[in-house]
Amino acid sequence: MGEVIVAALGGSLIKLNEQDKCEKWIRDLAKCMLELNSRGFKVGIVIGGGIVARQAISSVKNIITDSELLDNIGISATRLNATLIQQVFNYSGIDTNKKIPIDIESATKLLEQHPVVVMGGTVSGQTTDTVAVELSNSVNAKRCVIATNVSHVYDKDPRMNDDAKIIESISLKDLGIISGVGKKLEAGSSKVVDPIAIERAIEGHMPLCVVNGWELEQFMAAMNGGDFNGTNVTVD
Questions:
Q1: Is the dihedral of CA 178, 182, 186, 187 positive or negative?
Q2: Are the C-beta atoms of residues 61 and 70 closer than 8 Å to each other?
């Protein structure tokens, strides 16, 4: 299949309510894909649901109490966002998938046929971080980049702790301790890295990079395996 990199792009990066900013970011993201392809990389992209998912789930949370049904709404939002990115890639001349895959097996097969594959969520109970790590394991990716709206993992939640410290490098095992490996997130909630995703990375010995996805220069450095401003999560 060739050398593959997988990236989880948090839905928070797709700011549909800030059109100019969102449009520029998507244009520049397409240029990043073309550059990675020119360097011989194949790229799997997994898109999160972001504000679309959160608002949709919030609007019916007092009506629907079944968490699986709420998850399904979130998955639909991720696939909508994935379609937006995929269509821009196609229009930009990137050889990518024509339909959004709904499972890891389909995405893996598509990466054998295309240099870039874009997808969203798959099944209830899994965040797109987990999907990205599972895809990484399936295609023997060199690394999985978790691109979100923050640049680093912290030793504690910085929103609640003024003394929270940035972590520049950490092992998967220690990150799992901080995040609470094995604990499912509620529909519509988020952490910098989903605990179940970390668990899958530990199982697959998959190194992770956490980076601010708005800073595409840093994102590209992480994708290329270079030095970047973010958190490097090592296997050992």
A1: positive
A2: yes
Structure tokens at 218: 């840093």
CA atoms of 209 and 231, how far apart (whole Å): 6
CA distance 229 to 231: 7
Select from 231, 208, 227 the least CA-distant residue to 217: 227
pLDDT digits (tens, 9 = 90+) for 53-83: 999 999 999 999 999 999 999 999 999 999 9
| Contact criterion met (CB below 8 Å) for 201 and 172 | yes
> By C-alpha distance, which of 90, 4, 91 is closest to 39?
4
* CA–CA separation, 209 and 158 (whole Å): 19
Closest-CA residue to 50 (of 20, 92, 24, 84): 84
CA distances from 115 to 60, 180, 207 (A): 38, 34, 21
The pTM for the full model equals 0.92
**Residues 203-220: tens digit of each pLDDT:** 999 999 999 999 999 999
The residues near 163 (Cβ < 8 Å, ≥ 6 apart) are 156
Could you give the CA distance from residue 124 to residue 70 in angstroms, rounded to a whole number?
Answer: 9
